[in-house]
Amino acid sequence: MRALFESACAPTQPDLHSKKSAYISANAIPLHSHQNCIEQDPYVSRKASRKTAGKTPDIRTVAALAKVSIATVSRTINGSPLVSERLSKRVWQAIRQLNYFPNTHARTLVSGRSRLFGIIVENITNPFFPELIQSFEEIAVAHGYEILVSSSNSDPIILTQCVRRMLERKVEGVAVMTFGEEEPVLDQLVHRNVPIVLAEFKLNDPKASTILLDYSTGIHEAVNHLVTLGHSKIAFLAGPHKLHSAITRENDFRTAMKAARLPIQKEWIIECDHTLKGGVAGFGNFRSLAKRPSAVICSNDMTAIGVLRAAYLEGLRVPQDLSVIGLDDIDFAEFTLPALTTICLSRAELARAAFEALRQQAENPNDPNRKREFLVSTRLVVRGSTAAPSASKR
């Protein structure tokens, strides 16, 4: 077929092989123009219109255009207070006009600062953490910093390797967002005088900051929401007890149940692993029980989504037969069927607190008024996975 298209597109020439030419003429698909041939033949190479690239601008080019010295350009790029606002604007205007990209490695050598922050998360496959990283990067870039990302995958050996890479890259600070797995590597960071910020973990070191997470507010709202709907049989699928965040959430659930004067059924509090499969497995523990809960609060959204699937496979209707509440409010939560009622832990607020803690350490390490503790609260977001229990479930 390609030969047929090539024949139809070729200019008229003397026929040297009349029989072959007659065959082609009889079987060729008529095309109206050479342009049509190009559009329909995927093998025809196309020429891209492209301007010839000029000489790559360097710091001298910028200085010449801005009519300042090379040293002034360098100081401007490095944020030196010695450069006046008038000259700084002129330099940045020249940089934009020339589309000049400063050499970050050279800038590090001159300033002695990498302007690089590290962030280590527990498990990058959990949607909560990519959303957290995205928020952290947006804030960092807006303030002239870059980020280095690592995931521990809940493995202490990998976590140690993550920290080593951070140190080799000379990061100015590390946000350790592993929620309970960070203890084995804290000494590596502290002994090398690297500022760190931890989630829910206090460290008695001047270069360590802490983000306190108020799960209690959101969990109390969740329990009260279910009680208002008429539920009294409420279960809790906890996270792995190796994470202090999971233990905190479970304790806050117990406290909320006591505040609501509801009994806590020991067999209704089940340890899971914060994954979809963990939610399915956790829900499976209810099958053998003579008495089942009418509502389940989960330690994170991934567990809750696993419960939604397990309930569906068992023929239960959510929320008519079972109410389900998650924790995190990941983006997927509003797209489940039904949409998941969940406790929102804002990734944007968490990222902002983590960045601010590191920024203060990097830029004002000796400031006696530097903030070392940050608070991020939670709130309930009501969607479609909760409703009043049926009469038989009360």
Question: Percent range for helical residues?
Answer: 40-55%
The CATH superfamily name of the largest domain is Response regulator
CATH level-1 class of the largest domain: Alpha Beta
From the 3D coordinates, which CATH architecture of the largest domain would you assign? 3-Layer(aba) Sandwich
CATH level 3 topology of the largest domain: Rossmann fold
The total number of structural domains is 4
| Overall morphology | elongated
Structural commentary:
It contains 15 helices and eleven strands. It has four domains: 2-40, no CATH class; 59-111, Orthogonal Bundle (434 Repressor (Amino-terminal Domain)); 116-214 and 348-377, Rossmann fold (3-Layer(aba) Sandwich); 216-345 and 380-393, Response regulator (Rossmann fold). The protein is 42% helix and 15% strand. Strand 3, helix 10 (186-191) and strand 4 (196-199) form a beta-alpha-beta unit. The chain is an alpha/beta fold. Strands 2-1-3-4-5-11-10-9-8-6-7 form an eleven-stranded mixed beta sheet, with helices on both faces.
Please give a handful of descriptors for the protein shown.
about 15% strand; alpha/beta; Rossmann fold; elongated; disordered N terminus; single chain; about 40% helix
Short description, anyone?
This protein is of the alpha/beta class and 394 residues long. 42% of the residues lie in helices and 15% in strands.
Topology diagram in text:
Layout: H1 2-9, H2 18-27, H3 34-40, H4 59-66, H5 70-77, H6 85-98, H7 104-111, E1 116-121, H8 128-142, E2 146-151, H9 156-168, E3 173-177, H10 186-191, E4 196-199, E5 208-214, H11 215-229, E6 234-238, H12 244-259, E7 269-271, H13 276-284, E8 295-298, H14 301-313, E9 323-328, E10 341-345, H15 347-363, E11 373-381
Parallel strand pairs: 1-2, 1-3, 3-4, 4-5, 5-11, 6-7, 6-8, 8-9, 9-10
Antiparallel strand pairs: 10-11
Helix pairs in contact: 4-5, 4-6, 5-6, 8-15, 11-12, 13-14
